[in-house]
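Schema walk-through. Below, the input block comes first and the output block second. Nothing else is stored per chain. Lengths vary across the set, and this one has 218 residues.
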Amino acid sequence: MLHLAPTKRYTILERGDATVPRIPLEDAASTKALQLLKRHGYFVATDLGAALEADVASIETELENFFAKAPERKEKCVGTVYANERGLPMFRRGYERQENIRECFRVPVNEAGQPWPSSQTKVCWRRVITRFQALADALLEAAAPGHERGEDFSLAYCFRYGVDDGGANGGSDNTLVGEHADVSLVVVEPVSRVPGLEVFDTYAKRWVCVEAVCVPGK
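--- output ---
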């Protein structure tokens, strides 16, 4: 994996910085959580519990082992193209190599045609994603009580950036992926063990290096 130093325009904060919005996972769909999202655009969930931490570590190991395999082995996990809520074709289920950008493994909520590296990967993946999806659903219900859910187009994915990758979404060799907005209603992510992700705090008006203020896997 590629280690990147934050760019000069990003604010470097200590892990215990009190200005970073934090809330225990058990309260992550509460009124306070919604207030933090409205104010900052994100929050850090804490006190995940040993079970979830272990599940996250397990899927990390599974995917690290998968990405380390030879290209021809990974290409056996290339699946069909899935569509978004507008019916437009998006990316492929399973493995996809985006040249000079990254390697991906994706699983939409509709798993029809979904390839898996192994049965164990499927088990580990579902354990984590079930928890993440429950949190996202609870947040949406808290934000819009009684809303009509309709068809679920949720997507889960893992990205791996290599030493020769870079330049996606207006990025460069130093930033890999440029500044952009994720259009999903709710994004839930475990903290990477490799620094590189930054988020914009809409209240503090500054960019925050995620791995610097969080504990990977916790």
